[in-house]
């Protein structure tokens, strides 16, 4: 039987891996854009730059979402000071809203990704560019973020009940 610590270690490795893949996509996108800018100096262009930048941008944005949620490193702004109880309730309310948003968006994106994959959705530019991998990555990013937020919500409710 797998212990909770081993599952958490596996989840951490998976989330870290998606963040690294997202970083890789952003770096490839930056290199592609730089190459296109350099090619423009020679009155040329890299093929399908816009399409590839769109795909890499979506993947680079979506995959690290679970990493941000797991590390609770999202950006927050505190407008008012409040007591501990109010802060806990505010955090719980924020987690509920975040879970609903990421869960519903992940659900709808997974439906679109499934349809796109079944149809092998692509665009023929200079060569065939498949769109479905980006849609799958986007859906996985939001769904994994929703799962992480759900676990954070459960822990927040547990802590609020205890103290």
Structural write-up:
The protein has one domain. The protein has 5 helices and 2 strands. The chain has helices spanning 4-41, 49-62, 65-70, 84-118, 132-162; strands at residues 122-124, 128-130. Strands 1-2 form a two-stranded antiparallel sheet. β1 (122-124) and β2 (128-130) form a beta hairpin. It is elongated.
Q: Main traits of this protein?
A:
single chain; 163 residues; mainly alpha
Short description:
The chain is mainly α. The chain has helices spanning 4-41, 49-62, 65-70, 84-118, 132-162; strands at 122-124, 128-130.
Q: State the secondary-structure class.
A: mainly alpha
The outline comes out as elongated
What is the CA-atom radius of gyration, in angstroms? 20 Å
- What separation lies between the terminal Cα atoms? 32 Å
The secondary-structure element order is: HHHHEEH
Q: How is the secondary structure organized here?
A:
Elements: H1 4-41, H2 49-62, H3 65-70, H4 84-118, E1 122-124, E2 128-130, H5 132-162
Antiparallel strand pairs: 1-2
Helix pairs in contact: 1-2, 2-5, 4-5
